[in-house]
Amino acid sequence: MRRIISTCCLLLVSFFPFTVVAQTSILLIDAESGDPIPSVIAQVDNSGRHLSDERGQLSLELSAKTDALFSHIAYETKRAVLAPDRAVTIEMVKKTNSLSEVTITSFESERGLMEQAAAVSKVDEADLNRFNETSIVNAFNTKPGIRLEERAPGSYRVSIRGSSLRAPFGVRNVKIYWDGIPFTAPDGTTALNLLDLTNIQGAEVIKGPAGSIYGAGNGGVISFTPGKVTQNKAEASVMGGSYGLLKYRVGVDQTLENGSFSASYVKQQSDGYRDHSALDRQVFQLQGSFEPSDRQQITTKLLYSDLFYEIPGGLTAEQVAENPRQARPGSAEQNASIKQKSLYGTFVHDYEFNDHWSNHTTVYIQTTDFENPFNLDYKKETQYGYGARTKFTLNDQWGAFPVRLLFGGEYQFANTSAQNFGNRNGQADTIRFADDLITTQGFLFQQIEVNWTPTLLMTLGVSENFSQYDINRTVDASAGDPYAATRTFDPVVVPRIGLSGQLTEYSAVYGSLSSGFSPPTIDEVRTNEGSINLGLKAERGVNYEIGYRGEYLGGKVQLDASAFFFKLDETITTYTNEQGVVLFRNAGATDQKGIEAQLDYFLVSNPVGLIQELKVGHAYSYHHFRFKDYVNDGEDFSGNALTGVPQNNLVNKLDLISRTGIYLNLTYQWVDEIPLTDDNTVMQDPYQLMNVRLGWRKNFGTAWQLELFGGVDNLLNESYSLGNDLNAFGGRYYQPAMDRNYYGGVKVKMRY
Q1: Is 667 in contact with 750 (CB distance < 8 Å)?
Q2: CA–CA separation, 282 vs 102, rounded Å?
Q3: Burial environment of residue 308 by CB neighbours within 10 A (0 to 12, 13 to 18, 19 or more)
Q4: pTM across the whole model
Q5: Are 529 and 577 in contact (CB under 8 A)?
Q6: What does the alpha-carbon distance between residue 553 and residue 607 come to, in Å, rounded to a whole number?
């Protein structure tokens, strides 16, 4: 009988194998504080969705190793492998939804935003992705005191507190870094249009002079942060929209035993709203990150950008009324456009000598091939350059006071071969002049931070700056003989002092006094009609600022406000001669007073509710900017409003995230009238913009994520110009922006 029973049991096991199920205990905690996280959603293969309890715990019955995806509205999504009958702790990284949790690396010192004695705005990935993802313009324009303009697709202009006054095109008077690498050329210009959103995960913007750490530039500093590899994934996306918009991207991230690797390629093209305003851009990025030891990390990047865009040109008010989509007469016939191919190679090294000393060093090399046919001429340039920046940091205790000491330096070099030709029907004609240009700039910086009390932090910094232009004119069709010119700017010492005091754990006040300077760029000294203006002086300014940051109702209400007074001497402004060439001159002094504030509050924040998050935000800027002691050709412009700067700017935002995966981003912006001439006789009318994006994002299992999205820009169909030509000859002030336009797309992500 026993033999029969044994045989039957053996047959049952053979035909119906038993699965051993074991209990797996999971604890979800905050990666920084270690506190348990309730209401975390765990999505497990073949086991549905589960929720952690008030103690951050949940239990699962598993029979084998299983992938799981952990998500929470306030934390970054995390993927992990679970094993049966094994307790596991999952650390989750919190999203920076609260001012007290935001960490800022500005002024080369990683501290909480509440400790920073400066006006700093942070643009995160959610800000960049709340619009159509074709440019950074809309995202940056939601922040107080910051205004990006796009005169034509791909043609950017950055104004931080009015700093674009001397930038008829391109980015000047603002220092830009990418992963700590100087992205602004040594001549003071920045080819911001080389970067795609793929190359950026977020940014920090310092408003006002920051020369004590970052050298020349009165406008401020933008520090872009590239994405980091945190998991193995492959992504693909495609989107299309009005006026021939098409953009697609592929990318892969791969973690390694002691580092990571990533690669991405993106292509964007459009026909443009206006005639002769097409864009075609391709960007490829390759990145590797390695940790040779516990104390050091090395990151290398290769960035290649191939950019082409057409320049439609400025229109008069009559031409805009007749047909805002037309190009300036002659732009298409002369093929007014820009072709630019650039290659960047970068090397970043971090090393911790011990618990007190560390070093951060960046090195880059770059080469650029630039071609710019325009209505009046044809410009060709080839350039190569290199640069480096290094910073040593000491964290120590001096007596009863915690101290952080920073010192280092930055050096950049560029050699440019530039030729200007006549333009005959879009082709380079007879050479007019040719120059070999060498630009160098460098500075040393020192900064000390002292915690006089647990709530009072003092920052004192200073830099010593050097710069020089060498212009060797090899061909000059008008003057004949070659000649050389050199402009060396006297060494400039730029100091800054800041005090930050925390009133409570969730509120702080600050004040700062900072100096800045900005020498003219080589494009301002060497103009397109062939003159060399060595008499153009560097701008010098002093900024006084106070601010307040605070949170209320457990972080549901957040306020960041500041008031400033910036005195600028030898202000550089633009004017246009009778041939339409933009020239530059010093315009005495300006007084720039302003108030900026950002208020955000959560109406709903419930990770398990149908509406998980409903957030409203407001950003307001009041800029009372005036010329002082400005007389030109017998006309006194003293007291006039600063050209190109709206006095009032208001942005309202609404963001909704639901448990079903549906999300909504709604943005409304009102911009005050803008003076277009120094005498303030021509103004752009106030305008209002509304943008909306609606999407659906869902995880399928633990590996796949799908997102569908669509939106409308300029929903109110407003007629406006996003980037006017200031003091333009012939009344060609206006660069009409798109009317109401639509877009939609799909993203697919696979985790592996």
Answers
A1: no
A2: 33
A3: middle
A4: 0.90
A5: yes
A6: 18
SS (H, E, C) 63-99: CCCEEEEEEECCEEEEEEEECCCCCEEEEECECCCCH
Which residue is listed with tokens 């679970």? 82
Report the alpha-carbon distance of residue 39 to residue 4 in Å, rounded.
53
Alpha-carbon distances of 561 from 106, 113, 513, 544, 599, rounded to whole Å? 18, 13, 17, 14, 8
Query: What distances in angstroms separate CA 710 from CA 352, 665, 716, 743, one per listed residue?
Result: 46, 11, 17, 6
Which residues pair with residue 623 across a beta bridge? 594
Percent of the chain surpassing pLDDT 90: 62
Query: How does residue 13 score in pLDDT terms, banded at 50, 70 and 90?
Result: very low
Higher-scoring residue by pLDDT: 21, 103: 103
User: pLDDT tens for residues 610-666?
Assistant: 999 999 999 999 999 998 888 777 788 889 999 999 999 999 999 999 999 999 999
Both tokens of residue 131? 């619009």
pLDDT cut 70: percent of the chain above it: 95
Cβ 5 vs Cβ 11: under 8 Å: no
**pLDDT for 46:** 61
Does position 15 have pLDDT exceeding 70, yes or no?
Answer: no
What's the confidence (pLDDT) of residue 22? 76
**Bridge partners for 611 per DSSP:** 658
List b or e across 614-624, with b for residues whose CB sees 16 or more CB atoms inside 10 angstroms. bbebbbbbbbe
Q: pLDDT at residue 17 above 60?
A: no
Q: Which residues pair with 237 in a beta bridge?
A: 249, 747
Q: Return the residue matching tokens 């090395």.
A: 298
Of 23-37, 159-173, 390-404, 621-635, the poorest mean pLDDT is in 159-173
Q: Is the dihedral of CA 372, 378, 384, 390 positive or negative?
A: negative
Residue partners of 290: CB distance under 8 A and separation at least 6: 256, 258, 259, 297, 298, 299
- What's the Cα-to-Cα distance from 292 to each of 181, 286, 351, rounded to whole Å? 21, 19, 10
What secondary structure letter does DSSP report for 113? G
Backbone angles phi, psi at 403, to 5 degrees: -130, 140
pLDDT in tens, 669-687: 999 999 999 899 999 999 9
| CA-to-CA dists, residue 219 to 520, 543, 622, angstroms | 13, 11, 17
What are the distances in angstroms from CA 39 to CA 44, 486, 518, 605, 662?
15, 66, 52, 12, 19
Backbone angles phi, psi at 731, to 5 degrees: 75, 20
Burial letters for 389-425: b for 16+ Cβ neighbours within 10 Å, e otherwise? bebbbeeeeeeeeeebbbbbbbbbebebebbbbebee
Query: Across the strands, what pairs with 605?
Result: 613
Token look-up 């031409």 returns 319
pLDDT category of residue 457 using cuts at 50, 70 and 90: very high
Distance CA 244, CA 307 (A): 17
Residue 651's H or E segment, with its range, is: strand 648-658
Are the C-beta atoms of 162 and 623 separated by less than 8 Å? yes
Which tokens go with 341?
A: 């191919």
pLDDT at 690: 97
State which amino acid sits at residue 131: F
* Per-residue b or e along 689-703, where b marks 16 or more CB atoms closer than 10 Å to that residue's CB: bbbbbbbebebeebe
Q: For residue 463, what pLDDT is reported?
A: 94
Query: pLDDT value at position 12?
Result: 44
Helix %, strand %, coil % of the chain (to 5): 10, 60, 30
Residue 535, token pair as written in the block: 């008499």
